[in-house]
Amino acid sequence: MNLAESLRLAVRSIRGHKLRAALTALGIVIGIAAVITFVTLGASVKAEVVGQFDDSPANRVFLVASPDDDGGPPAALSQPVFTEYDVGRIEDIEGVDRVVPRGTIATSALSHGGETVARDQVTATTPALFESVTFRAGGPFADAESGDACPAEMVVTPSAAALFPGNLSVGDRVSVTQRGNRTRNVTVVGILDGDAGLNPLAGFGSQPRFYLPSCAYDTVVTSPTTGTRQNVYPQVTVVAENPGDTAAVQDRVQDYLDAESDAAQLAPESYAVSAQTNDDIVQRIETVVDRLTQFVTGIAVISLLVGAIGIANIMLVSVRERTKEIGIMKAVGATNRDVLQLFLVEALLLGVGGALLGVPVGVAGGWIAVTYAELPLTLPLGWVGAAIGIGLLVGVVSGLYPAWSAARVDPIDALRYE
Amino acid sequence: MTGDVASGEPPAVELDAVSRTYTRGEPVYALDDVSVTLARGSYTAVMGPSGSGKSTLLNLVGCLDTPTAGTVSVAGEDVTALSSRQRARVRGEEVGFVFQTFNLMPRLTAEENVALPLVFQGVARAERLGRARDLLDRVGLGDRTDHRPSELSGGQRQRVAIARALVTDPAIVLADEPTGNVDTETGDRIMALLDDLHAAGNTILLVTHQRAIADRAERIVRLRDGEIEGIDAVDTGGAAR
Question: What positions does the domain ABC transporter occupy (chain B) (predicted)?
């Protein structure tokens, strides 16, 4: 019997039990849809995060102190270990253009013109951060010379400005309530044009962010080298003079960190102080996102497995019900192989049909999840193709035993079967 | 296919010292040393009470079962030594079954049921449906080709089954109590159809427990307890060969 005839007969028997076939295929639809939804979400998160780094110039080296096991989340958990002494020393390293330290100031709220917005942190940094970005309005805050009064100035991202009704604009006065209810009154001097690539270590770029001068920073420590009280930062960005020298600068900075930095002495046990390039960080983030995606997808695969069991179950019932038909077919010349093929094709149709329906449902699910998370949609096309293959595989695997038992039916018994 | 037997041509079916033993707890002799030859174009009835081995004989000739001892030849081919795949081929090409309970595929139309044996022989769809329609015409169901078994009467179903048994132009038609599930009048019509087939040169082996039905054949093989009790020639009915 050729495949077209098996297909015709299989379609006929599926049509004979439309509801049953639909419910059976539904198991596969849900399984495939769940897998595609989660893989799409994972791919979209990865594309978004990695895209952020791609926007970041290639001449950056990021210094972080993070737990000394590979693949941990970078930077987000970075410890404040880089002192002002370290920042100064690194600025003197050959090939370094500038060094931008960054830390967070714990706050409870920001208010402007009677409107109060709850924020748990603002960012403290130096004007060097803004050298490579454009401003929508105004400009960077002044550099704080030691001994001078700290400039009461602030730079904000567009999304931060939008937190206040009627948006913040240059010249607006904002009071920042810091931890311990200390209030700092500052003037908005600049609104960025967005901060993509500016802050790759701190999460998604579209987050609202407020920048204060480093002199407002309040995390201090006694430098082990100089013995004086100094600001200590969790994140430092080193900008190389020449993008081609980034790797060499990375090595030299790492050598300094390992040999004589305050950071190495301040870092807690089991923490590593490291200089990483974009590529290093992208790799680590990809590892983390991949692992998360695999985990969630693994759960979705369980539902696919349940769907496969559903097909196997219904096919076994079907073999039972059609024992007599199997006997008739054998009496008129069907070989065991013909019968096996017939039932296998039927299981395969259920699997592939389920997969074909599951793909659009999964893509829709992925789109909804991605839209909800405000990420651009990235479709993992390979997986969409794989879903069809998985449907085939599920059909074959779950149909194999029922089809085999159908082929083994004894025609004499089967013809007597009522 | 003609009624006369050329001397060189093998008989349609030949059973030589065939025994079939089932072991269910203790051995049961369903058939014990049975030898019988069915010439081409002959019409033979097998009679006997239930448990006499009629169905076993039919299953052996139809390649659904294999003998414990002895040989069964269909169209000159010893089918006892064949693989299950080869026996499936013999069932499809050399044997046509007509069952008491019709045994039609419920989801297929009359013409698809008739054409089913050709599906397993790889005959193209258009050709096999054409042949099926011809045969349905022959059994008087030319206007029922698109009906499903559930839309047909018992007599019509049996005529579809007879058309199916003929579609491969088999060496022998095996009819197992073909009138067992229909009323007397319909049964008469089915028997008349079998008479027509015999007149047209088909070889028929009929199993029944009714003397009146068996009398329509040329010969009656009487079975009892798995052994041949006697073989009677029938004077009336079919012409002696």
Answer: 13-240
CB contact under 8 A, B108 and A12: yes
Cβ within 8 Å, pair A337-B85: yes
Instruction: Please spell the DSSP secondary structure of A10-74, one letter per residue.
Output: HHHHHHTTHHHHHHHHHHHHHHHHHHHHHHHHHHHHHHHHHHHHHHS-TTEEEEEEEESSTTPPT
**CATH code for the domain in which residue B120 is found:** 3.40.50.300
A336 neighbourhood in chain B, CB within 8 Å? 84-85, 88
pLDDT digits (tens, 9 = 90+) for A92-125: 998 898 898 888 888 888 888 888 888 888 888 8
- End-to-end CA separation in angstroms for chain B: 14
Is the Cβ pair B64, A331 closer than 8 Å? Answer: yes
**How do residues A379-415 score in pLDDT, each as one tens digit?**
888 887 888 888 888 889 899 999 999 999 999 888 8
DSSP string across A327-361: HHHHHTT--HHHHHHHHHHHHHHHHHHHHHHHHHH
User: Considering CB atoms only, which of B88, B99, B125 is closest to A333?
Assistant: B88
B107 in contact with chain A, both atoms CB, cutoff 8 A: yes
Domain with B190 in it:
13-233
Count of domains for chain B:
1
Pick from B149, B126, B116, B108: nearest CA to A15 = B108
Distance from CA of A330 to the nearest CA of B (A): 7
Q: Residue B11 has what DSSP assignment? A: P
- Assign A273 to helix, strand or coil: strand
Q: At what angle do helices A336-372 and A381-407 cross, to 10 degrees?
A: 150
Is B18:B72 a contact under the CB 8 Å cutoff?
yes
B93 touches chain A (CB under 8 A): yes
- Alpha-carbon gap, residue A411 to B21, rounded angstroms: 18
CA A399 – CA A308 distance, rounded (Å): 9
Q: Do A330 and B91 touch (CB under 8 A)?
A: yes
Task: Count Cβ neighbours within 10 Å for each residue of A154-175 and write b for 16 or more, e otherwise.
Answer: bbbbbebbebbeeebebebebe
pLDDT, tens digit (0-9, with 9 covering 90-100), for A138-177: 888 887 766 667 888 898 888 888 888 878 888 888 989 8
Q: What are A324's strand-pairing partners?
A: none
